[in-house]
């Protein structure tokens, strides 16, 4: 090994791959190659417990619908959350997403951030396709319930701010 090689290896940092990984994944999926990816975290519980795997395929922004699970990049992280709303701006779209296990929605996701759409899941070794009519209906229902829950929480927060201690609540932050 040459001295220059050793020095290059010692200066390499694993964090450098974190910024490259989303781009490599996007290129793989855009080339028509679906990918099974493991999930970590609790944002999609109970639908997707940590350790589940998702099959992600290429999609266009116009094919993304209410209830779909999207894989997208935000601030260097890869996130898998459910679509609650879709807005069209000229030829482009933005999406409001939220993890099923979270209280708040994410910031709007631009079409350029989308890596792909989840077509199937593997929970505990059992593969479930998400593109059947029954699964689509369940996805829309999950999105609708999530939107209603988020809306109710927002109303409760506003009411709590207005009424303050009248409900026995302390100051809000």
Task: Give a description of the structure.
The chain is an alpha+beta fold and 173 residues long. The chain is built from three helices and eight strands. It has helices at 3-11, 15-30, 133-163; strands at residues 35-38, 53-57, 69-74, 77-89, 92-98, 109-110, 114-123, 126-129. Strands 1, 2, 3, 4, 5, 6, 7 and 8 form an eight-stranded antiparallel beta sheet that branches. The longest helix has 31 residues, at 133-163. The chain is globular, with a radius of gyration of 20 Å. The model is unreliable at 1-13 and 165-173 (pLDDT under 50).
Could you give the distance between the termini? 58 Å
State the helicity in percent bands. 25-40%
What do the pLDDT scores average to? Answer: 82
Number of strands: 8
Classification by helices and strands: alpha+beta
What is the string of SSEs from the N terminus onward? Answer: HHEEEEEEEEH
Low-confidence stretches: 1-13, 165-173
Radius of gyration: 20 Å
């Amino acid at each position: 090994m040459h001295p220059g090689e050793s020095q290059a290896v010692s200066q390499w940092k694993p964090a450098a791959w974190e910024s490259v990984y989303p781009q490599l994944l996007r290129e793989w999926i855009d080339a028509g190659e679906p990918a099974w990816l493991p999930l970590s975290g609790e944002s999609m519980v109970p639908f997707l417990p940590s350790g589940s795997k998702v099959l992600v395929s290429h999609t266009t922004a116009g094919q993304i619908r209410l209830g779909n699970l999207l894989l997208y990049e935000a601030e260097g992280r890869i996130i898998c959350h459910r679509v609650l709303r879709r807005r069209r701006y000229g030829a482009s779209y933005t999406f409001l997403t939220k993890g099923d296990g979270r209280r708040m929605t994410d910031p709007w996701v631009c079409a350029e951030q989308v890596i792909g759409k989840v077509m199937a899941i593997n929970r505990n070794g059992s593969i479930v396709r998400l593109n059947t009519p029954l699964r689509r209906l369940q996805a829309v229902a999950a999105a609708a319930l999530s939107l209603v829950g988020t809306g109710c929480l927002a109303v409760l927060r506003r009411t709590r701010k207005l009424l303050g201690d009248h409900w026995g609540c302390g100051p809000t932050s």
